[in-house]
Amino acid sequence: MQILVRVFEVLFISSLVGVFPLSLAETTSPGVCSEADRAALLAFKAKIVKDTTGILSSWIGRDCCGGDWEGVQCNPAGRVTTLALQGPVKDSSMYMKGTLSSSLGSLPFLQVLVISGMKLITGPIPDSFSKLTGLTQLVLEDNSLQGNIPSGLGLLSHLQTLSLAGNHLKGPIPPSLGNLRNLGMINLGRNSLSGPIPASLKNLHLLQSFDLSFNSLSGFIPEFLGQFRNITFIDLSNNQLSAHLPISMFNLVSLSYLSLSHNLLTGTIPEQVGNLKSLTSLSLSSNKFIGHIPASISRLQNLWSLNLSRNGFSDPLPDVSNRGIPSLLSIDLSFNNLSLGTVPKWITERQLSDVNLAGCKLRGSLPRFTRPDSLNSIDLSNNFLTGSISTFFTKMTSLQKVKLSNNLLKFDLSELKVPDGISSIDLHSNQVCGSLSSILNNRTSSFLEVIDVSNNLISGTIPEFSEGLNLKELNIGSNKIAGQIPSSISNLIELERLDVSRNLITGTIPMSLGRLANLHWLDLSINRLTGRIPTSLLGIKFMRHASFRANRLCGEIPQGRPYDIFPASAYAHNLCLCGKPMPPCRGKK
After folding, report:
1. How many C-beta neighbours within 10 Å does residue 109 have?
2. Residue 167 DSSP SS3
3. Counting beta carbons within 10 angstroms of the beta carbon of residue 26, is it exposed (0 to 12), middle (13 to 18) or buried (19 or more)?
4. Whole-prediction pTM
5. Beta carbons within 8 Å of 485's beta carbon, 6+ residues apart
6. CB atoms < 10 A from the CB of 422, how many?
């Protein structure tokens, strides 16, 4: 869903870029750089103490308008009109470290200011930015900016795009932002803003995209949202908003994306939800909604993603005909007060990609889907499903994730025939028996990243691990597995989480375990392991949790972080472990 949100925002900004050209230099040769503008840019550069992007290394020479200064564009008079510095958000090695210089407020012809994805630019947004009255785009997202949003930004009357997302900004949303009557897009998401949504924002009649997600905003969703006739995108998720949904919101016939998930919203979904004829994605998950899911939802012809999980919705589900919600691809009704019994036909007979019906009191055998080849992920966990699994995955050629945990399924692992492209299998807390070698062998797909078969009846030993596996999580805890941990465990070079607790495992902890450099969770507790905890584990730098409790281990605990600062309970109930955090070893002070 986060990918979808990002696509909406990128498309919106791109549309504005098309209307308001970023560079006059593309059509007209710029003049020689103004000395005052050059000085303002160099003052900004001076405040950046480290630049691994290499962008600012191009800022040399007298002429900042000649095209050599990366990210800088000018008008024919030699005045800077655009400063666009964008770093790759996902590449942690590419960043700028420093603060924003108030000198940027001395660029009177600036129309576009984009400093995004720089990660380590800290400090406040300078008050001097309020002097940039010609600005149409201000994008300062994905940095580490702090403090309050300056109220002076409300003076930028030509502003059409305002994005301050992905920083550490706090305090209230300034009411002065309601003066930005030309604003088409506002994104203040992923900060620590608090207080209510200001009533002054009702003046933003041209708004098309409204994102305040991932903050600590409180109060209610304002009625004036229903006045934004051009709006296509609303994301108020992950806040502390309460009360009922405003009826006016369901007049927004152009609205395409609506996410109000992870709030404290109450009441019911009104029948008027069927008026949102342009809606493609609706997420109301993790709130306190009650009542029935309205039948009018079947009128949403363009809806392809519906997430109503983790609320208090009750039976019956609406009777959706074959023509209802014709575009639906993804549905999540998990963890409500639904007692479905069986999966409705309007779900099993559709060409869906994602089906999530966890905790819906499903009973009987696993459902059969008419179009299994379209399924990408399935979550039927926390139900009362019984029987075998032998034919369930037949023709599910696109399946990547399956979660059937916390059911009453009873089968041997040798019956499990999963698609080649599957990346995650979660079968924990069932009645699964058999040997791990049925799913972990030289035929195991390199796409497989997660296996959780904990709390079952699996026996046998841990098989040898061949090279080329890309497992990131292996949880086989709470079974009846015996034998030793094979030294070939070191072939799982991508492993981040390993849990073999509550089994019958014997032998020593292999030295090769220390080669798993990505491991951050290790649980070997409640087994029959002997010998020492190998010092090779000190080579795992990112370990956050480890437990060796209730084995037959002896000797000195590796004396280095984090092992010597884990709680003593992580080493309790062994034969003779010593050294921090346990009592000192004999002969050592």
Report:
1. 16
2. coil
3. exposed
4. 0.90
5. 462, 500, 505, 507, 509, 510, 513, 524
6. 20
CB 178 within 8 A of CB 197: no
Mean pLDDT of the chain: 93
Give 42-65 pLDDT, tens digit per residue: 999 999 999 999 999 999 999 999
DSSP per position, 326-357: TT--EEE--SSB---BS--HHHHTS--SEEE-
The H or E element containing residue 547 is strand 545-547
Per-residue pLDDT tens for 351-375? Answer: 999 999 999 999 999 999 999 999 9
Amino acid identity, position 272: Q
Is the model's pLDDT at 20 over the cut of 50? no
Handedness of CA 14, 18, 20, 26 (dihedral sign): positive
Which residues, at least 6 apart from 193, have a Cβ–Cβ distance to it below 8 Å?
149, 169, 170, 171, 172, 173, 212, 215, 216, 217
pLDDT exceeds 50 at position 187: yes
Q: Name the residue among 337, 460, 473, 456 with its Cα closest to residue 401.
A: 473
Render 49-70 in DSSP notation, one character per residue.
EEESS-SGGG--SS-TTSS-ST
Q: What is the mean pLDDT of residues 243-248?
A: 95
Residue with tokens 């309790």: 572
Written as one string, the DSSP assignment of 286-324 is SSEEEEPPPGGGGG-TT--EEE--SSEEBSPPP---TTS
The string of pLDDT tens digits covering residues 262-280 is 999 999 999 999 999 999 9
State the virtual CA torsion across 26, 31, 33, 36 in degrees, nearest 10. -120
Q: Are 375 and 399 in contact (CB under 8 A)?
A: yes
The number of beta carbons lying within 10 Å of the beta carbon of residue 467 is 10
Residue 89 identity (one-letter amino acid): V
How far is Cα 179 from Cα 165, in angstroms, rounded to an integer? Answer: 20
* Per-residue pLDDT tens digits for 406-418: 999 999 999 998 8
Residue 140 has pLDDT above 80, yes or no: yes
- Check: CB of residue 150 under 8 Å from CB of residue 130: yes
For residues 228 and 209, give the distance between their C-alpha atoms in angstroms, rounded to a whole number: 10
Match 């795009």 to its residue by tokens: 161
Write out the H or E segment, with its range, that includes residue 96.
Answer: strand 96-99
Closest CA to 352 of 328, 379, 368, 321: 328
Asked if 141 contacts 167 with a C-beta cutoff of 8 angstroms, the reply is yes
Q: Which two tokens stand for residue 410?
A: 């009873």
pLDDT of 26 strictly over 50: no
3-class DSSP state of 384: strand
Distances (CA, A) of 229 to 188, 202, 208: 21, 12, 8
Residue 550 has pLDDT above 80, yes or no: yes
Confidence band (pLDDT; 50, 70, 90) for 442? Answer: confident
3-class secondary-structure state, position 461: strand
pLDDT for 399 equals 96
Give the span between the Cα atoms of 427 and 456, in whole angstroms: 9
- As separate numbers, helices (DSSP H) first and strands (DSSP E) second, the chain gives 3, 38
